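Hi F.,

I've been meaning to write this up properly since the lab meeting, where we talked about keeping a consistent format for the predictions we share between groups. The idea is simple: the sequence comes first, exactly as it goes in, then the structure tokens exactly as they come out, then a line or two of notes. No screenshots and no reformatting. I'm using this chain as the first example so we have something concrete to point to.
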Amino acid sequence: MQRPVLHPWLHSAAPVGPKSPSRQHRRKCMSLIRGKDTTPERIVRSVLHRLGFRFALHRADLPGKPDIVMPARRAVVFVHGCYWHMHACKRGRSAPVTNAAFWHTKRESNRKRDRKNASALRRAGWRVLVVWECELKPSNIGRVIERLLAIRETDEPLQRPRDSNSEGRHARSLTHRSHLRAAR
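Output, unedited:
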């Protein structure tokens, strides 16, 4: 029995698929990856705003420069990309083939830095919430909203409670003045 003749390109050692990009092209693509105001971060900010939360962005005076800071609630939110911070999901577990050792070291250092920053914030009295990019899919967003609402329900804002008999400090001072007028 005679074996079928195969085309020469089936036996080549060249990789199958698109040609790998040049160094300049790869550099340009990588430079476009942002660290702030990413789409997942904007989604979380939009959800928080709709839930009535007020927050600050990227406070440099806190460890890790959290993406979202709610000072009145002593809570911070980090929005992590699954790939860059090595989440346990499919995207986070994928490893690059090109320059694998460098990328593994880089991503592992991101993960260690995240843990260090979260523990420093907790020691300083902050509550830390991490939202992963994969959790922001429409099918999962309900769980993220529940976790964000837990920030509101678990701890009251760190503001002095108002006196229940008055409408605040200004109302007490007006009441005090009217009492003085009546005594004259």
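Notes:
The chain is about 40% helix and 10% strand.
Strands lie at 56-57, 68-70, 75-80, 127-132.

If this format works for you, I'll send the rest the same way.

G.
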